[in-house]
Amino acid sequence: MNTAKNSRPLVPLYVCGILGPFGGIVISPMIPELRQSFDTSTTTIAWGIGAFFFPFAALLLVSGTLGEKWGREKTIRMAVVLYALASLGCAASSSLFVFFGSRAAQGAFNAFMTPLLIATLTDLTPKKRIGRAVGTYAAFQAIGGVLGMLVGGIAADLGWRWAFTVIAAVALVLSLVLPKTPTSQRSAVPGIRAVVNRRMLMLGLVALTQAIGPGGVQLLVALVSRDVLSLSGSATGALLITGSLTAAVLTPIWGSLIDRTGAKRGTILALVLSIVGALVLSQTKTTLALVLAWAVVGAVVQCVSTGFQLLAATGVPGNRGGGISFVLSHRFLGHAIGPLLWVPIFERNISVAYIGAAMVGGLSIAFVYAAQHDTLLADQEG
Fold it and tell me: Can you identify the CATH homologous superfamily of domain 7-180+190-381?
């Protein structure tokens, strides 16, 4: 009873975890409709994903540290409101230039939410349950992916602008119900220099290569669904949802496993499984096979994120937000690079695109070992 009562104020923070994944993913099921609406090519529309993730990744280098200094509560609340306004800008776009600009604004404002939300959850949760808390946040991120693909798929059939209107309304409501959050002593918050060290650089490279590699196969699945299997936008959204639904169930459990075994082992195991999953996806030829494979692979990929986000949260004592944002900047830079790399390859050979993503995942494993950091050692180091 006490645990449930203590967890209740955290719910709006968890729900805020929906906003970023929704914004980043929502255009995946509606690429043909955007392509037609703006009279352009698939490759050009793929830049709509980069338009969100490039500014997101760039600002994450400093957003966590700045948010700690400005105050978490004020920073998160303002970022949520501005994210809502940027989403309305996407919905009202009359040209590709305006659409990409609004997408960039979404990504920029989201940079001041994600790291501070994870840092707040880490501070408010007992040490023995931090892994589960971060896993639960990852589950809500997965739900954000579910909603992004579901709403994006439905909007592809009914009118793509509705997807951005819906998330704008959700963000405005959340801005009114966010709880008070811890605020660090401004003078005590280490600057960005404390974050830029070998450990954090290696963890950043884990996030970068994971996002380009196994984390980038979701777009390939969406493209196979629309352009190879000729499924509708709604059907593609439903297909992609399977991976996010299983992730929503698995990531809190994976977080509990990490609490016992450490985030280093949990991240490596999830990476190995996601690499195998990408190779399996390269050989799927039917809708049923794609649904079943993605249901597993989508969940495992989210487990990788749970692991390295927790490693980042414990990597810089005294500046959780800065450490998380620095590592996540690499992750979302990877999400921006992935489509630009894999879409042209996909158009020539689908299997090669999947296999290439799997091979990049091998680099992620090497960087986890090179970081020489684990949550089991974090208490001694802090």
Answer: MFS general substrate transporter like domains (1.20.1250.20)
